[in-house]
Amino acid sequence: MNTVIRKIGNSEGIIIPKDVLASLGLRAGDSVVLVEEKGEIRLRPLADAAQDFEGRMQVARERMKKYEVALRELAK
Fold first, then answer.
1. Class of domain 6-75
2. DSSP string computed for 19-64
3. Reported pTM
4. CA 30, CA 26: separation in Å to the nearest integer?
5. Containing H/E element for 18?
6. CA of 64: how far to CAs of 17, 49, 52, 55, in Å?
7. Which helix (H) or strand (E) holds 76?
8. 6 SS3 class
9. Cα dihedral sign, 9-11-17-20
10. What is the tens place of the pLDDT at every residue in 10-61?
11. Where are the domains of the chain?
């Protein structure tokens, strides 16, 4: 599916076709997360972002535990 980047005020944006929004259960006003990965742009519904956030928090907790001594020294 092709679309064009358009000027919207001081920003740029794209129009997402209504049938695509409907298939994802989205509508105007819903929040999404924009993720840029390996030269691609992905949009995810905010609900998926919450799961992604929890996964990232788990990684952060593991790293904080691993580097607990160093982090405590840096916090002084």
1. mainly beta
2. HHHHHHT--TT--EEEEEETTEEEEEEHHHHHHHHHHHHHHHHHHH
3. 0.50
4. 6
5. helix 18-24
6. 43, 22, 18, 14
7. none
8. strand
9. negative
10. 999 999 999 989 988 888 888 888 889 899 999 888 766 666 788 888 899 9
11. 6-75
